[in-house]
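In keeping with the milestone schedule agreed at the kick-off meeting, the structural modelling team has produced records for the first pair of proteins. Each record is given below as a sequence line and a structure-token line. The laboratory manager (R.T.) confirmed that both were archived under the project's standard naming scheme.
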Amino acid sequence: MTATYHVTVTHENDLWVAVVDGLPAGMNSATDVERFADLDAEVRDLIAGLLDVGRHSFDVDWRFADGARVSAGQMRALRRLSATLSRWRCPACLSDVRHPSVGPGGVECPLCAHVDGRRAVRFTRRPTRAGYTWTASLDEADR
């Protein structure tokens, strides 16, 4: 049976902070990154390094401070969506950003860490031969 680690993510002081539950006592269970797109790899490196296991030998259950939960498949979809965005103009610092990262709250500016929630992330689950896969897209928020 594959181990599952629960990770709680917050956005504090221009950093994405991830706290991992379920690690042995006394181990550093937190890490942070500047870009949301780097979060999955950093958390997997932390767990794998502390436990001396492979990066994909366990599952991660993502929970966000606002109560949202994102599956591993949805995290992969967010990374793919981030890779497809070529340009975006940050409404906070007015920078023209190439390849911004996309998090569950919207598009994130790597320069000022502003998260533009006016563009909501929508997840779609599509069937495949192996089961299903997630895709993510940006839509105007219903706010």
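The second protein of the pair:
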Amino acid sequence: MVKSIEGPELNRRKAIGLVGSAIAKGAAASGVIAGLDFASGVRVLSADDKVTSKSAARSVNASTFNASIVNPLGRVPLSFIIDDSTCLVNMGHFCMPQFAEAWPDRQIYHQQWQQWPREIPDSFVRQFGEWCAEHSVKGKYSIVPYPACVGWVDRFIPGWSKKQLDDSVKLVRELMMPNWDIHPEMITHTRVIDLATGRPMESANSATMENSYPQTDVSVDYLASYLAYALRILKRCGLSCEGITTPGGFGNRVKAKLPIAVHQAVRDVFGSELPHYFKYVREGDESTIPSLEYADDTQSVDRLTVNVPAGTGDWFGSWEGNKKSDPDRYCNEDATSGRMVELIKRGEPAVMLCHWPGMYCNGDLSGFHAFQRVVESIHRRFADQTLWMKCSEIGRYYAAKELATLRLVDETTLQIDSPLACPALTIELNSSQQPIPTTFEGAGKTIKLTSCSKRSQLQPGSFHRDANKTLICLDIPKGTSEVRFISNE
């Protein structure tokens, strides 16, 4: 992705135009009207929902009982989106001359790229990945399959041995993939590939560069084929993908077709149940809650793609890797201001954005050090209020939050119907009676729910009671499951 380019065909911020049914912009605000909780988009319990039960001895009065799905573990999701990453190749070094050829009038591309290192070494990948694992940081990490047309990550890259490439891919597979979604960022991030020949387009201009492709309308089938080409390369490397990232303005002229193509390509190559993609940055008062985008009018989960946006710009070392970082724009030293603080206080996903060259910063690691400071500041103030998640995990959670239905079957049973399985689904019960959850039944299993004294201790299979609220955290299966409870009276 190229964030600093000032053209409508290339600027990700100006590409915002959502498709399909989006979760309500103000969804973080609470409120129950006519049985619909707008904070969760689910049907909530009310007096009209109750079914009269004969077991009234220790039952809960449904007329004083409401429930809604809230953030996972009652915390705000955090994530870190990394663009322009790949194996070994420094995309800043190799992309710059190609962009200059395609857009010769843009001064930003006339930089001394020859002085920048050609490689971002695996030693830095290991340093970064291990530090993030120690601090529970998760997110999305791109692997450009044919980076800047230098070489193929599943075959060979000139300038590096086969063993160096294999070791680099292995490092991503073993160190990064457990905590990071791996995305192709198209095929090259520079020149468009002719799918019939596998060769880059001959000339370099707006019509032949992935950052601004396509310039004319193309079919969903063609878009899906282009995405699948990239995904198959990563599959041959043993990398698993549930989504894709668009470089710059890729797909701007076919936005309505892009989520359909993502759905087809990711399902075809990897069989993923719930494809997602990253393209958009949301600013100001725009909601950072993922959007649900359907491939047709059936509104079926089998035709669903999740659009997971970032909530910040890139204020580290930028895509070139030579800019001075401005970490306070994310979060200042004491975490009292900055975009991440704003999103955390709003209660919506706080997703940071950067480019891999801007972490390495041509070897001085200033971007990485600025990132470390931001993470440490957030943890000092908000550790018990936030939760690091992959983009796919955020997408799945908010899809389940939007699509699940809650219903009071009788006065001791809460039924959950969800078209998706969802780890750590968290339900808030509001009742003056403070009902006590006892067991959870789903997928043929029954587990006893345990009480935790602190909200920060909440984990799947447990609940926390505070004043008139009870939080219950559950790993729900696809289909129907039930929570059973008794009155506190």
